[in-house]
Input
Amino acid sequence: ADPPSPDAIVDAFEAVLGPITNYRPSHPKGTCAVGHFTATPDGTRLTVSPVFSGQRIPTLIRFGVGGANPNASDVARSTRSLSIRFDTPSGDVWEMANISAPIFGAPTPQALVDGLLARRPDPATGQPNAERVAAFVAANPATTLQGRWLAANLPPASWATTPYWGVNTFMFRGQDGQVRPARWVFEPRAGVQRLTEEQVRTIGTNFLADEMRRRVATAPVEFDMVLQFPGQGDDLLNPTIAWPDDRPRTVVGRLAVTEVSAGPGGPCDPVSFLILDQAPGITMSDDPTLQARASAYAVSLSRRTR
Ligand code: HEM
Output
C-alpha cells in the first residue's frame, strides 16, 4: 500500500489532538537557543557537506519536551529533544530534530498514523476506546519498544546531560566519493545524568529551561556529534531497532550552546527543524519513516503559522 500522504499524517495528529493552532503537535514545549558547530577533521573527511567544512557554523537550537502538550511535565517518561538548524556561509541550511531515546515509536508512517487514529477520542465518552487501543498495540508490538526504553531509563537531569539520537539512517558522501549509511548521536560533554526517583517526585515539572539558562551563563554547553556505522545485518530502514553499541563510531563535530532565550518562543517558532531542501552531501536513506518526515513537518508548520 502507498504510504500516507503528508496531509493524511497531519490530519491524524489533528484527529487525536484537535486542530493545530499556534504550536507544534509534537514537542510543543521548548526553549530556543543559539550556538555553533565545528566539524572535526574526521567529519570533514566523511562528508562533503558544507556543514562539515571545519569552519565554525552558526546554529539555531531548540530544546524540547516530547508529547503534544505545551505545558508538558519535565519529569514525564517521554523524550527530550535537541533540534538544530545549521546556517552555512554558502547559504546552505541543514536541519535536524533529535530525541533522547535511541529509537522511535513507530516502524512505518502507516503504523504512526494507525496508532494515532486508534487513540482518537470516542465521541460517546471523550476518551480513547481502550479495546481499540489494545487491539492496535497487539497488532503492532514494535510501537511499544520506545515506551519500554523510556520506562527503563529515568528522565534526564538536564537538557545538557542526555544523549540525543537522530534515530533514522542518513547517507553521507565522503571526500573519497564513497556514500556511507550512518546514524548519529549527540553525546553530552557534561556526561549523562538522570534524575533519581526522589528527584522525579520533588524537582517540579518545569525546571529544565532555567537549569539550562544557569548552565550556559557560566560556560557553553557542549555535545560531541558521533556517527555510528552499521554492521552486517543491521536494519537501516527500521527506526524502532537500535544498532548494537559495538558498531564503529567516529566523532565528527562539536556543538556548543552559547545563549538561551529568556522565555519560551522566539526565533525557533517559525522553524520546523526538517526542511525539504537539506544541505548537499547528506541525503535521506530509504527508511520510509524518514521519507515521510520533511513534507509532514512542512504541512504542520503551515497549519500552525496560518
Ligand atoms: C513518520 C515519522 C514522523 C512523523 C510523521 C513526524 C511528525 C512530526 C511533526 C508533524 C512535527 C511538528 C513539526 C512542526 O510543526 O514544526 C514533529 C516534530 C518533531 N519530531 Fe517528528 N515525526 C516523525 C518521526 C520522528 C523521529 C524518528 C524523530 C526522532 C529523531 C522525531 C523527532 C521530532 C522532534 C524532536 C520534533 C520537534 C522539533 C522541534 O524542536 O521543533 N520525529 N514531528
Summary: DSSP finds nine helices and ten strands in the chain. The chain has a mean pLDDT of 97.
